Amino acid sequence: MLTTLYSANSLEEMDICLRQAAEQHGCSIIGEYDLSSKLRDRGLSTGRKIRVYELCDPIAYSKLLERNPAMGAVLPLRISVHAMEGGVQLSAVSLASLGRSVEDPDMVPLIQEMEMAIREIMTAASRQHHGRAAAGPRKTDTYVHEGAMEGQVSQRGQIPQRIDRLGTKVEDLAGTGGHDAPGG
Predict the structure, then answer these.
(1) How many CA atoms lie within 13 Å of 56's alpha carbon, on the beta-carbon side?
(2) pTM greater than 0.90 (yes/no)
(3) Domains plus CATH for the chain?
(4) Over the stretch 61-107, which tens digit does the pLDDT of each residue have?
(5) Quick one: CA torsion of 9, 15, 21, 27, rounded to 10 degrees?
């Protein structure tokens, strides 16, 4: 699952905006490469300019790696930016699937924190414009994301509809300590 945003910025403007947004969120861009030129060097072409940014959130990464050093396999988080007509598209892998795959429930909040940070950075960068970074959203900016899908919603800690094998619902017991309308 990808988180995707669109911006009217050019690739060059987005480079500056992403770096500023990352810094504002206590993160940094620790690597950046032009994926399309690397493919072109091998005689292949994507037909688009694509840049990939590697993001470092030192506080979140240190907490995550302290709990499970193997999580270094998914770090650093990456944001892909590619040129398209009228601007750029930013994309990042959603960490929700990673949160479902870890066996340590204490890691889930850390993963969710990283998910929120990358979304906030992408949103801030997509709304900035080089030269007027604090100008806020423009009409040409569009946020595209379908929201949480069924597989991204954690059922941990949710109250079930029926609380016993007799089919009792929580709302049936609310307020009185017993059924409000016994009988049929």
Answers:
(1) 7
(2) no
(3) 2-153 (3.30.310.70)
(4) 898 889 888 888 888 899 999 998 889 999 998 877 766 677 777 88
(5) 160
